[in-house]
Amino acid sequence: LGEELRTVDGVGIVQDVTAPRIIFRNRPVLLVAVDIASLGRTTRRKPLFGNMDDMYSRTAAGEGVMVADNLALLNNLHLGEIVEIPTPTGLLKLPIVGIVEDYSDQSGTFLIDREVYKRYWRDDSCSLFRVYVKKGASPLDVRQRILDRFGGQSKLFVFTNQDLRRYI
Predict the structure, then answer these.
(1) What is the pLDDT of residue 168?
(2) What is the CA radius of gyration of the chain?
């Protein structure tokens, strides 16, 4: 679906996102797997700890993980610490390269590159797609084009950024 979304008139960027819950230190946390380089171009999160350019480049290269500040606080995690993330193929050991403010989950969130996720989880499915419209395109018109094209073949929830913020 991601590739097909990219062909819709007015669509600029599509980020394929997988967001499963995993068990970390006997607690469920959220793992967000996305193309980190693309994320860095669209919604750069300023680090509370770490260097912005370093954390995005190292996470995109599969050499590190970004951690939500609430996960760091709840688990006494620190910049540079190696975390062991359980995967279906064994432990993924990565250093924390950035601690960011993130409210995706109250228990905390790991952010990794999607290619790392696909390799360690052997899973290329997506939980959601973040769609950014081209400059000058109407978000409402693009939303309607997506619904017209895919609504009959898939269960879709298509929110504009404004709608999603209002819903939350």
Answers:
(1) 65
(2) 17
Which residues pair with residue 34 across a beta bridge? 113
Closest residue by Cα to residue 28 from 95, 100, 86? 86
CB atoms within 10 A of CB 54: 14
The closest of 103, 92, 84, 94 to 45, measured between CA atoms, is 103
What pTM was computed for the model? 0.88
Q: Residues 98, 100, 103, 104: is their CA dihedral positive or negative?
A: negative
The two beta strands, 11-17 and 128-133, are: antiparallel
* Amino acid found at 138: S
Mean pLDDT of residues grouped by 10 in the chain (168 residues)?
A: 90 92 95 92 87 95 97 97 96 97 90 97 92 93 92 80 75
d(CA 165, CA 74): 26
Are 66 and 110 in contact by the 8 Å Cβ rule? The answer is yes
